[in-house]
Amino acid sequence: MRLTAQRTVLSSALAGVLVLGAAAGYAVSADLTGNGDARRIAGDQTSTVRAELRGGAARNVILLIGDGMGDSEITAARNYQYGAAGRLPGIDGVPVTGQYTTYSLDRSTHEPDYVTDSAASGSGWSTGTKTYNGAISVDVDGAAQKTVLEMAKANGLRTGDVSTAELQDATPAVLVSHVSDRGCYAPSSSACTDADRLETGGPGSITEQLLNTRPDVTLGGGAASFADTARAGQWKGKTLMQQADARGFDVVTDAAGLSGATRADQSAPLLGLFSGGNMPTEWNGAPATRTGGTEAPIRCAANPAHTAAVPTLKAMTTKAIDLLDAPSAKKGFFLQVEGASIDKQDHAANPCAQIGETVAFDDAVAAALAFAEQDGNTSVFVTADHGHSSQIVYPGTTTPGLTRTLLTADGAPMTMAYGTAPEGGSQDHTGTQVRIAAYGPGAANVVGLTDQTDLFFTMRDTLRLDPDKELPGAPEIRSVNINDGAVLRGNKTFVVTLDAPAKYTYIELNQGGVWKTDNTKAPGSTNAGSKPTLKIDTRDYPDGTYSLKIDAVGIDGRTTEKVLDLEIRNH
Ligand SMILES: [Mg+2]
Ligand SMILES: [Zn+2]
Fold first, then answer.
1. Quick one: pLDDT band at residue 28, thresholds 50, 70, 90?
2. CA distance 217 to 481
3. Ligand 1 mean position, distance from CA 359 (Å)
4. Which of 14, 22, 384, 556 lies 20 to 30 angstroms, CA to CA, from 438?
């Protein structure tokens, strides 16, 4: 009996946090040759599983997406880092599992497209609506579909969107924007259509919509798009970074800045931009080639580009949870975390970088799970958006595609094969169903076979979100207590009625474009609340035509302007 220690850990897997500390070195696996030595469970699991199936509502939901993380990618990462009989501390510690289908729809025929991309699949769990490849939270006809993050925010929850990719990339974008083509990153992106662009009446590029949707915490790469310039709207002519500054975002650009952040809310949302494009991978190694499978097995190395200035996905996840978790607040939070480059390195046929990103993602899952277990009122969902190319094939062989052999934690060779594109091409997604795992209230809704779109409804219902609640836009000026062209004499208090309290409302009396007074100067006036005022005595001003200029500024910087003409006639 050599497995006692490991068995103890494994049998507690369903109930608690898993830390399989010593597994990262070489050849750590126990002798697996005896009867029952490779078992992962000890005895009957019925009561343990039953205890995990909790109904009811959750205060918080954390959704973790491994992009392109099919079963093959999970198995390869486990084999490499923890050994064949080991466990991924995060992913394998999420107790309730099932499978879900990921297919998308053909845009014109509406028939199933058996291989999804990250845009259609993300739109599926973000909105509950199946759509076409390339769509960002719009349906097959291009109509915007409300996202789970928008719904959470409209219901008073705090929200977060974290990724190792560019923030404009499909997976983070599906929560905060609605565009017909996933390439519509910024105002000058050629992929934007007239339906998307601000200057043609659309909601704007992904980056502009991200600033409007304004999650409390947004962390990832994609700084380059913020250098682009708005072509229409309130911030026309300003860069998107200038807009972010003007609208109160706290921008951090490195690990130290992130760890120094102490608050993130609607007055000052946290925007972490840690790379111009996608963030660097944590590991690197030789990519797969036509003959790589027969070459000497390799071990993976740390990627020097992932310096100490670049936060890990775990660090971003932990900070996001710290900032979003406010036990004294009435409502909880919704947070999505994406390990984006599992997919990107699968495309690149780079098994070391792919596995390193899977292990980094797993660290983030473990952190989320530890929070949920301690919190007691948080559900965690862990899944992928689609399957991908990589396969584990017979050790030391080649295939008609590309291969590379790695030396795993077991000290054994593991050959990875990529065969969905020729050498030099981008290895591509596959149409397999993928694993979904859950912990906490609502976990039972991932059991068996579900569809990607079910996840939206599971999260919405677990958080008890009212789908009809709307996100506030710019302040609405409901009324002003004078009519356009009014003739005034004596003491007058202008009262502006808004739909909701604004950050502030500026009310100015001017004549021919020249400032006369405003509600920051005039005694007895107020620029706060939902009924701001300006008090004047018309006898302080000569007779003539004037105008009343009103700017109602929302907490997110969006402003509604109104101008009324008036006449002062004291005599
Ligand atoms: Mg992605
Ligand atoms: Zn991909």
1. low
2. 39
3. 16
4. 22
118 is catalytic: yes
d(CA 114, CA 133): 11
Which has more confidence, 5 or 544? 544
Distance CA 274, CA 259 (A): 13
Tens digit of pLDDT for each residue in 225-252? 999 999 999 999 999 999 999 999 999 9
C-alpha distances in Å from residue 429, one per residue of 137, 389, 419, 566: 20, 6, 11, 64
User: 344 CA distance to ligand 2 centroid (A)?
Assistant: 6
- Between the CA of residue 22 and those of 5, 25, 28, what are the distances in Å? 11, 7, 8
Tokens of 3: 């497995």
At which residue do the structure tokens 């789908």 appear?
Answer: 467
What are the DSSP calls for 446-461, one per residue?
GSEEEEHHHHHHHHHH
* Nearest ligand, CA 387: 2
The closest ligand to the CA of 221 turns out to be: 1
Residue 151, helix vs strand vs coil = helix
pLDDT at 29: 58
What is the distance in A from the centroid of ligand 1 to the CA of 328? 33
How far does the centroid of ligand 1 lie from the alpha carbon of residue 172, in Å? 7
Alpha carbon distance 144, 177 (integer Å): 9
Rounded CA-CA distance 67/429 in Å is 10
Out of 72, 104, 118, 525, the active site residue is 118
Closest-approaching ligand to the CA atom of 343: 2
At 495, list the tokens: 């009262």
**Could you give the domains of the chain?**
55-289+301-387+430-462 (3.40.720.10), 477-568 (2.60.40.1220)
Q: How far is the CA of 224 from the centre of ligand 2 (A)?
A: 20
Ligand index nearest the alpha carbon of residue 169: 1
Query: Is 4 a residue whose pLDDT tops 60?
Result: no
Q: Which residue matches tokens 């789970």?
A: 148
Distance 171 CA to ligand 1 centre (A): 4
As beta bridge partners, residue 97 has 437
